[in-house]
Each structure stands twice: as structure tokens, then as C-alpha cells.
Fold this protein.
Amino acid sequence: MEHEHIVTSFDEELKAIDTTLAEMGGMAEAQLAKAIQALVRRDADLAREVIAEDKRIDQLEAELDHDAIRLIALRQPMAEDLRMVITALKTSANLERIGDYAKNVAKRTITLAEMPTVGSTTHTIERMAVLAQGLVSSVLDAYVRRDVAAADEVRRRDEEVDHLHTSLFRELLTHMMEDPHNITACTHLLFIAKNVERIGDHATNIAEYVHFMVSGEILEDERPKGDKTSQTIVDAPQEKG
Amino acid sequence: MIQIATVSNDPIHKQPDAAPAGAAKITAQGVNVYYGDKQALKDISIDVPAHQVTALIGPSGCGKSTFLRCINRMNDVIDGCCMEGEIRLDGEDIYARGIDVVHLRARVGMVFQKPNPFPKSIYDNVAYGPKIHGLAASRAEMDEIVLHSLEKAGLIDEVRDRLDAPGTGLSGGQQQRLCIARAIAVEPEVILMDEPCSALDPIATARIEELIDELKQNYTIVMVTHSMQQAARVSQKTAFFHMGELVEQGTTEDIFTRPADDRTKAYITGRIG
């Protein structure tokens, strides 16, 4: 809302929450980008950086929670102010999870850097990650601009990440069947892919909160889902002979 | 000293209002009120649901108290006050010719901002209305009405052994509950409350709010309050008044989580409108 509060310090406190959230969002997005870069480049040092920086996201989450609880207790926000504070609380929890997933990608990257590469799977993961990162970035923009249409768009686009995840799942299973020596690396890559897929889900969660924050409506319809890995069976390759 | 040990479970009072909860108890249509040349209310239309608490909120001078006072024709006594439109109680036009205003005010009781007990005993404060309206045939019946009303107002345990003490000697919160007992004693259907807690501390306020919550089982309550938190806590329906207009009305949950009108949003969130 363009109007300011009569009590100026109320506006300042709301703004402080938004600022913390923006910093968290920027960091979560950067952490994902860095983790994937480390994976693609097989750069264990960069991966270690990602692991170390995750602490900062956790700190920001604690800071935001503290400020939001304090504001609820002392200001008793109503209407859009209430919705904004609740959305910030929920969003920060989701961003913190995104940070955790990036960190997990980084941890596995350190292990994978010691192993031979498996086909072109890292590049499929990279494509997935670029999509997921795009969702995180778009949803943070939607939050800042209070843009329902943009938030709803993120909710729709998450399906693309899910589709890639399903095809990657098949690809990795096939590599494992072809050569059992691939199993360790492929398993790590499966977890990495799952992490990226979850990041897309968290971006979708945030999109739903942004929708609520701006419109006051809680979305109740089923969100679009394209992850079919739970029903996927990959047949063993035919014996040559 | 008056002593009656128990209150009968079978009060001589008429049955509580039988209107189904949520149905319109009061219907206002196109209400305009003028104080001389100044228009205080502009085309107000609202349904007040039975057995619910309806909160009227809005800045000072917005017309909410004026509207409250229309419901029991308290504005009749103000010089130069003139009302147009229609207010119906159970479908009956309360401004129709031939309506007995004294009887109307027995059906629609009122509790004011500042507790205003009569300079009489606690007993007499509550007995006054039933006496005027001839509701008790005997002293025993009157005792029962008084005790029953004090019980419903949640005051009986604090005053049982000093019913002949002056009502003005009670604490502010007790005085307000005495005024509620006095309003209940004539078995109204509707209770109007004009900022009933604004002169009370938080504990006394909580007791009145708890009481309001219980009272809505038997009565329809319309309350003017400046405390939005109070409106949010006790009411099921909220109406926002601004400069004589009824800007927005809806369930209390909707008004406080997702108001539709910009003026409501600004008021509720404490913004410069």
C-alpha cells in the first residue's frame, strides 16, 4: 500500500523485515548458483564456500523471526500488515530450506569431485538448477513488487523443473544399470537432483504466500505437479548377444 | 439485608429470544440522520444478525454512536435531530406511528461508556427497570429477577452479601457489570453497548468481554468500540463507518484480515487515509 502508517516507526519495522528477507532471498539464490557452478566445474573449494556461507542464511532467518514476533506482539498488525508479516515468516522458513538444499548439493559435490563423471547428467542438473534459480528469483521479485500474476506464474512454471527431474531420474537409473561402477556417483546425483527439485517446490510455496499476502486469498486448488519419479520404472537394458 | 440462597433454574422471565442465530434481528434501510443542517449518517443499510455481536468501528465523529442510538430511538430526545429511512426490529418498523418508545427501550437495552449506576443500592439499581415495567408481581419475584440478572452479568458472587450497599461504591468494572445486570433485568432482546470498556482496566475489560461472549447466547449485541483489538476479539460481524457513511461491513475475520475498501484498510492498519 502506498499510504504510510501514522506511526512512522511501524513502517520502519515492516521495512526492516522486508530488507532482511530480501537479503536472505538474494543469498539463497546465490548459494544455489554457486553450488551448481561448483558441481559443473568439479570445484571442491567453491563447494566449501557454499557450505560455510549457509550459516549466514540461518542467522538472517533467526533475525527475521525475532523481528516478526516482536512486531506481532507490540504492533498487533491487521489486514495487509498482518498478511505481510505472516508471509515474511513463512517465506524466510522456505528460503532457509533452499539454503540447506544448496548446502547439501555442495557437500555431495565435494565427494563427486573425486569421482569420474557420468555421461551428461551434470548438464541436465545444471539446466534444472537454472530453471529452479529462475523460479526463486522471479518469486522474490513478485514478493518485492507485490505482484500476484508473477507469483501465480512461478507456481505454474515449477512443473518444468519436475519434468526435468523425472527425465533425469530415468537417465541416472539407466547409467546405473549399464555399469554398477556408476552407482555411487549416480546416487549422489539423484540426491542433488532431488534437492534442486525441492528448491522449485519451495519457490512455489513462496509464490502461494505472495498470492495470499497481496490478495488475502489462500490458494486451495491443487498446484501443477510434473514429478513422476515416484511411479517411474526403468527396465534393464537388453543383453547384447 | 436481602438474602436469597439460590436462583431458580426456572426464571419467571419470558423465554430468551428465539430468533435463530445469524438471521437478521435488526434491519436498517437507507437511514439518514441530520443534526440541524449537518448530516451525521448517510444512507446506512445494514442487517444485524441475531445472537451475534456486531461491532461498529470508525474514527470519532464517523456516526457509529449516532447509528447505535437510532436502534433504540435515543436520538429522539436530541433537539434538531431528524431521522429518515427505516429500522426494523424483527420486521417491525420501530419508527412507525404508535410504537411505544418505552416498550422499545425495554426490548433494546443500552450500556454506556461510563458506568452510570443510579445513586441507589445494588438491588434497587437492578430492580428499577422491572419495577417500572411491572415485571414482578411480588417481592419474591423481584428478588428472583434481581439475583438472576446479577448472576447473568457475572456479578452475583461479588455482591451477594451486600445487595443493599450503594451501586456507586463498586469498582469501575463491577459498576459496568451492574449496568449490564440492570439492562438484562427487563429481559431485552438486543443490548446496545457504547464503548463499554473504554473506562476499564484490562482485567475488568476481559471480564466484560467474557460476559459479552456468554450474553450473545440469549441476546443480540451491537457494540461501538474504539479498540479494534476488542472488535476483533468479541464480534462476529464488523461494520466500518467513516464520515457518516457505512463504508464496509462483513465478517469480523474478513474485515481484519482482508478488508476490501481502501478507507477500511487505512483505518484498520493505522495508515494515513
